[in-house]
Amino acid sequence: MTTSTYERLSRADPWYYTPERVKEIEPLLDRVRELKRKRDAYLLAHNYQRAEIFEVADDTGDSLALALKAAEVKDAKVIVFCGVHFMAETAKIVNPTRMVLLPDLSAGCSLADSAPADAVKDRIEELKQSFPDLAVVTYVNTTAEVKALTDVCCTSGNAVSVVRSLPNRNILFIPDRNLARHVANNVPDKNIIAWDGACYIHEQITPEAVQQIRAAVPGMKVLAHPECRDDVLALADATLSTSGMIDYARQSEAHEFLAVTECGLSDLLSIEVPNKRFYRACKICPFMKSITLENVIESLEKLQFEITIPEPVRGRAERALRRMFEVTGRDSMPVPPQVPVE
């Protein structure tokens, strides 16, 4: 066991990441690194992953950051995505010539599942009868098929600016009703029509839990994800994406924070910003936590489970993702190499 591995992991959870546990984890970490070299693989990990996954990730981030990183991959044949299914699909959308692997096919997303493509298509057709100028804005937490039906995608960090940039007044926002409400509150001149979906993990976080911790830690900064309920966001000092929370914590003069989102982010914050303290009003996502070192190893050994998307669907979904950057005036998404990997 190396001291640095134990020091980093124990910051996330000293009760779980004991010296004995870390000693068991280290051979698995070494095996992942060995297989990454053998398979010429690049490993992306979402901010909600298990802390030990961060140790072998080439990049960590939120959905936007990981989409950018996936598009940039050109010196690796394989992308291993430690996240949930729609995220691995996004990596394939933006870099179609790489093999994209999801270590566990059970790593789904209740929010993405709340918007089946057939139902979305029907709803769009219905609404366009009443709102001819309708624009469809889709959160990246959706399937490739839904992205393919979309005018422009967004993330939790840029949803407000994406909607604000559109000339259309009437917006169908898919699939998260809480994020849609957050957008509507910030862009009152638009008619936001919300799809009735939600992340059940964020829905479980209550204002009572936030207030209880805030009362016990005066002066603490509360950082909340916009997928949370309105009554939770009302208590936050800042409403931010997961990457936004990390940047805020690093730059803030405050030393104590409450991260109101999935618990993996608190682990990452504790590791990456060790000079500050992070409390939890969070819930654990079983889909995110289904990714383990063991199934990452199996995925690399067997090259399973490969993500495939029909080209017509992939191409339309890519256009919606690229338009996200165009309408917000941000740096464009890199164009990946077009020569297929043998």
Describe this structure in words.
With 342 residues, this protein is an alpha/beta fold. Helices cover 46% and strands 14% of the residues. The protein has three domains: 3-108 and 289-310, Rossmann fold (3-Layer(aba) Sandwich), CATH 3.40.50.10800; 112-198, 3-Layer(aba) Sandwich (Rossmann fold), CATH 3.40.50.10800; 205-282, NadA-like (Rossmann fold, 3-Layer(aba) Sandwich), CATH 3.40.50. It has a four-stranded parallel beta sheet, sandwiched between helices. β7, α10 and β8 (191-194) form a beta-alpha-beta unit. α2 runs parallel beside α16, α4 (63-72) packs parallel to α5 and α5 packs across α17 (311-328). The longest helix is centred in the first third of the chain and has 21 residues, at 19-39. 48% of the residues are buried.
Write the layout of secondary structure elements.
Layout: H1 3-12, H2 19-39, E1 41-46, H3 51-54, E2 59-61, H4 63-72, E3 78-82, H5 85-94, E4 99-101, H6 110-113, H7 117-130, E5 135-139, H8 144-147, E6 152-154, H9 159-165, E7 170-174, H10 177-186, E8 191-194, H11 200-203, H12 207-216, E9 221-224, H13 230-233, E10 238-239, H14 242-251, E11 256-260, H15 264-272, E12 277-280, H16 293-302, H17 311-328
Parallel strand pairs: 1-2, 1-3, 3-4, 5-6, 5-7, 7-8, 9-10, 9-11, 11-12
Helix pairs in contact: 1-15, 2-16, 4-5, 5-17
